[in-house]
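[step 3/7] fold_predict: job queued, chain A
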Amino acid sequence: MNKLDIASIAAAFALAFSPGANAQSISKADYKSGKDSIAAEYKSAASACASLSGNAKDICRAEAKGKQNVAKAELEARNKPTNKSRYAVSVATAEAAYSVAKEKCDDKAGNDKTVCVKEAKAAETRAKADAKAQMKTAAANKSANETSTAARKEARETGADARKDAAADKRTADYALAKAKCDALAGDAKDRCMNEAKARYGDEKSTVSTRQKESTASTPKKEGAGQYVDDTVITTKVKAAILGESTLKSAEINVETHKGMVQLTGFVRSRADINKAVEVARTVKGVTSVKNDMIVKGQQ
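[step 4/7] structure written:
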């Protein structure tokens, strides 16, 4: 895979959760051979980058590392073919494509660069959301096929909720991208652009999972006289706030909320990014506390 793009992401998770993906695990010898081959290919690819300079070198390294990570995930999926391991292939492919696209954005400047990074992040978010929905649906269908009619009905509902959750994540990313594009404008033109973006992507409530609504309906967060905030709405707003923070544009932060308490997980570049993400989350209306479970890359 010399080029990591959206087509390869789509192909990765479409194949990953196909019926034919349920193959038997490979032998120990094949697994070891696969690991050795991946290491050798990465070493060769990284060596080829040495002759380059500037951003071309950074892009080359990102492509080499991304290819290695995808190959490792694919090997693990062949060794232990489960929905989770196949989902990992889709995630690795999405992250690899984002890493390369983000490096290519360094050739730009100003708002063009910001929009470029937001587009890359939105593409990664869409791919991961679709892959997660596919995994949940595949797992639910597998369980339903082994049980009752009632279980099959629940599996259909789980699949529908998974797709709604994926749509919510994609709307959040698209909203952040649209706002970044509006920043290139000024005055009334910018105001119109922001209003259009909010009208098109900013209605978080329309994308909230029905299952999530039911799970949080009994414990809403009270905001004032007769006003309540749903945990899923808080989660969406925190995600949007983090995506809108320029210093966190390359971070990979996940958000979960329970009774107004926000948990942040994922990987960031530095301790400063952790502090900034926590600070941004605390500014969101309805958040009562923020728990940090983020990890600085290279320190895990």
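[step 5/7] annotate
The two ends are 28 Å apart (CA to CA).
The domain at 208-300 is CATH 3.30.1340.30 (Histidine-containing Protein; Chain: A;).
exit 0
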